[in-house]
Design goal:
The protein contains three helices and five strands; from the N terminus they run βααβββαβ. By secondary structure, it is of the alpha+beta class. The relative contact order is 0.15.
Length: 124
């Protein structure tokens, strides 16, 4: 699902800074990162901060700080769900007690536990 986002002036300035050309000096056989690589990393970091897939951003003509992007859906423990605007945090739901401490980790209670949002009930 695509959504419109607006970055702050500080975020916009940071993104522009990442796109600037870098001096081309090779030290120890390692070439410097290109402005494109730096820009891609800046978009990915901004996506983590704002909750969208970093490489899915598309500009909106006439709105320099606005863009559309795919909303990042929680697929790992601790991530925000983001399904239909849900703000719940994804957790593993165990239906029986953990027995890892008895000597054979991981136990089936841990390996079979579904990743779920406690707010909306969606599974990852």
């Amino acid at each position: 699902m695509r959504k419109e986002f607006e970055m702050t002036q500080a975020q916009y300035d940071k993104l522009l800074e990442a796109c600037r050309p870098v001096p081309y000096m090779v030290f120890g056989g390692m070439e410097p990162r290109s402005p494109q690589q730096n820009a891609n990393d800046a978009w990915i970091a901004l996506g983590e901060e704002m909750g969208f897939e970093g490489m899915s951003a598309q500009s909106i003509p006439g709105k320099p700080r606005c863009f559309t992007a795919e909303v990042k859906i929680g697929t790992e423990e601790g991530q925000i769900c983001n399904r239909d605007g849900c703000t719940g945090v994804m957790i593993y739901i165990k239906d029986r007690p953990c027995t890892c401490h008895t000597g054979n980790p991981p136990c089936s209670a841990c390996t079979d536990a579904p990743l779920q949002c406690p707010e909306c009930g969606e599974n990852a």
